[in-house]
Amino acid sequence: MKFKTFVFMAILFVLLYWIIDEMRRKNVPMPTEVNPIVAEKRDQLIQRAAQKGINIVITDDFRSAEEQDKLYARGRTDKGTIVTHVEGGESYHNYGLAIDFALLLKDGTVVWDLKRDDNKNGKSDWMEVVTIGKELGFEWGGDWYGFKDYPHLEMDFGLSIRELQYGERPPVNE
Ligand SMILES: [Zn+2]
After folding, report:
1. Is residue 122 part of a domain?
2. In angstroms, what is the span from residue 5 Cα to ligand 1's centroid?
3. What's the pTM value of the predicted model, to 2 decimals?
4. pLDDT tens string 64-98
5. Structural domain contains residue 17
6. Cα gap 121→101, rounded to integer Å
7. Cα 121 to the chain's mean position, in Å?
8. Is residue 97 part of a domain?
9. 45: domain range?
10. What is the mean pLDDT of residues 32-37?
11. Ligand 1 centre and the CA of 45: distance in Å?
12. Within a domain: residue 103?
């Protein structure tokens, strides 16, 4: 093969690869709500925590890519403190596969307190909720290396963010 032919073929290959890549990305729409399995597990989490005398609130589940971008701007281009390290399309929230929780006190206050033990069983209420979450199949943001996201629970169904960005989706029926 001549060198020119080789270069031409290489360019063609890269171009084709790029086109296919773009097509793969655009074929599948972004989810618009929380995944039904995650929704079911979220409700079970609330129930099971309540059975242990711990009331929780879900502060966030599905979040659109636009909402994620707004959140990302906080503490960067917008006022406030940094609350997330990922932009739109990079969070499991954007695919309806993550939830955030907080503790709900008797007086109605919502707290992010990892130490309190209001049901007085010698265990941190927060960690009890995390344990239930893990039993239900969630992965906990507090286990991450680097940036730790303590209120965050996610279910990835074996899919990476990259795969989700490419349009892969969890099974609809389990
Ligand atoms: Zn989260």
Report:
1. yes
2. 51
3. 0.83
4. 999 999 999 999 999 998 888 889 989 999 999 99
5. yes
6. 21
7. 30
8. yes
9. 36-165
10. 95
11. 15
12. yes
